[in-house]
């Protein structure tokens, strides 16, 4: 059976992939809202590539679902803001 290779990402690569700063990543790790790193040595941590990718995909899905739910709220009576000024003659 063929086993997939696991790729480890150091912090600079994680930052590039997710677009967050060091402090944002470490705060989210502490809050358990970001994948936990693997300790490679006393001073070196790395993240499993697949876990970071899954986190990215979850964020995309959550963002898309949230946007769709916002668009569905009150769609029958919602009016664009720009049309309000035009109608009052202001």
Average pLDDT figure: 85
Name the shape in a single word: globular
Please indicate the percent range of residues in DSSP E strands (runs of 2 or more): 5-15%
**Order of adjacent strands in the largest pleated sheet:** 1-3-2
* Structural class estimated from helices and strands: alpha+beta
- Distance linking N and C termini: 72 Å
Total strands: the figure is 3
Unreliable spans:
83-87
Order of helices and strands: EHHEEHH
The helix count comes to 4
Radius of gyration: 21 Å
Proportion of residues in helical segments: 40-55%
Largest sheet: 3 strands, antiparallel
Walk me through this protein's architecture.
This protein is α+β, with helices and mostly antiparallel strands. Helices cover 54% and strands 12% of the residues. It has a three-stranded antiparallel sheet with strand order 1-3-2. A hairpin with a 2-residue loop joins strand 2 (38-41) and strand 3.
Fold blueprint:
Elements: E1 8-9, H1 11-18, H2 22-30, E2 38-41, E3 44-48, H3 49-72, H4 81-88
What keyword list fits this structure?
90 residues; alpha+beta; three-stranded antiparallel β-sheet; 3 strands; 12% strand
Q: Can I get a quick summary?
A:
This protein is an alpha+beta fold and 90 residues long. It has helices at 11-18, 22-30, 49-72, 81-88; strands at 8-9, 38-41, 44-48. Helix content is 54%, strand content 12%.
